Design the sequence.
């Protein structure tokens, strides 16, 4: 018999932002493993489950905990905020899977911050886009810089994850400078969303030049439009290219 | 009173892949507008709702239909497959919103094919990535080409939407050639998923050189790893950079 482990994306945090499938899977599990902050977001529905955690940065140990619990015969879910496969634990679980041939992994996707933040801000990612993390814990800064420059070169809309932390207070400013240096105009339409789907959710639009001066925190997702994006009222919109008048003109022509 | 319109991402198609919020919003609406294929995916739960549609390519008319129904006092949902704000109708609705000042838009995010397809394939987007559509209906091919080249330059993992259609049978091959020409190796780890979350869901891994020879259809999402991605069994995995041995070594050291 295979030991089943589910790697579950919980979306921004509220139960109603999870998919039905994610809820059903969590309901079916004996043990839910996750970073404490995310476990604490799970409500009454999950009373009676065994909750297991490891401190921040102990991701390898957290994954190993899942495998060890599964080997005991428990049905295990590993929860990740947002999507399990976008800066989540899915890849690390697969990397470790060779050590645990009796275990079978299933990834259950969730709403990542690019989607949930974009929904709050309007439609900033409604055309080709990049997702880039500014955290250099696991990625050399030179690689992040190369990706920011490439994003401008390809004229992608951009979602920036992990734009700041206590130790990286100026990273968003540095990222903006790289984008500007790569040719993005200071008037480029941008926005950011704090505490997506949680208490204190707020959204703001601004220009790239203004974004450079803003102090964001680790619960912020930043959106940078492509060269054609516009701010409409309090929304950031990246057009897909539909001709709004075309249909009306065609109808008028048909009518003669 | 504001007339409420919800632009709802339904995910890959099954009711269980929708978020609780999306289901609750659809439950609360009188009228559900969408492309017929997506309306047909909605089950018994929505019997009794008024379903309205326009043919393919009549997206402007479909959006206008939402506004007109809302102005009649109906509570309206516009459904999009995947996420409402990723190649969905959110941006077009905002673009038209100035004509309908009495209407208020809310975007309800859904699981986009990048997330749902990645979950089936393993963890191909577990580090910085780009999402690029190969459809040149609304985007000049030269722009698509520039984005593909930039994606290689930044060493992003890539999710390709709309990789093929009857009229664009060779577009995936052309895209692969652009990636190869931009410096991606023929051995680059890739994969593709057909009919995500629907009957006939299948996933395959292959190299970039092999991908070039594969005929995909319009219900396929293609994943191209970054230079470090690997194929593990039948899964495509893009590592995030955790040192799997590090924790074990630290523990061994603690134990002396």
Sequence:
């Amino acid at each position: 018999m295979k030991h089943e482990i589910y790697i579950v994306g919980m979306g921004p945090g509220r139960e109603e932002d999870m998919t039905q499938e994610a809820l059903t899977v969590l309901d079916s599990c004996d043990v839910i493993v996750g970073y404490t902050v995310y476990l604490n977001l799970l409500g009454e529905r999950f009373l009676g489950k065994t909750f297991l955690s490891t401190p921040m940065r102990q991701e390898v140990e957290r994954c190993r905990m899942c495998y060890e619990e599964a080997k005991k015969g428990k049905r295990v879910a590993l929860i990740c905020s947002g999507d399990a496969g976008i800066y989540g634990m899915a890849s690390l679980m697969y990397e470790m899977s060779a050590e645990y041939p009796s275990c079978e992994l299933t990834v259950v996707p969730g709403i990542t911050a690019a989607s949930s933040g974009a929904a709050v801000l309007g439609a900033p990612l409604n055309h080709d886009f990049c997702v880039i993390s500014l955290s250099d814990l696991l990625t050399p800064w030179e690689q992040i810089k190369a990706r920011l420059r490439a994003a401008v070169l390809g004229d992608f809309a951009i979602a920036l994850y992990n734009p700041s932390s206590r130790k990286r207070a100026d990273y968003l400013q540095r990222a903006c400078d790289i984008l500007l240096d790569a040719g993005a105009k200071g008037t480029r339409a941008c926005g950011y969303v704090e505490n997506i789907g949680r208490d204190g959710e707020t959204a703001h639009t601004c220009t790239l030049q203004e974004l450079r001066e803003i102090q964001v925190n680790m619960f912020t997702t930043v959106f940078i439009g492509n060269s054609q994006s516009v701010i409409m009222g309090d929304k950031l919109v990246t057009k897909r290219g539909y001709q709004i008048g075309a249909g009306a003109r065609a109808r008028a022509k048909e009518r003669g």
Remarks:
- Residues 48 and 166 of chain A are 36 Å apart (CA to CA).
- The mean pLDDT of chain A is 94.
- Chain A touches chain B through 81 residues (CB under 8 Å).
- The longest helix of chain A spans residues 59-71.
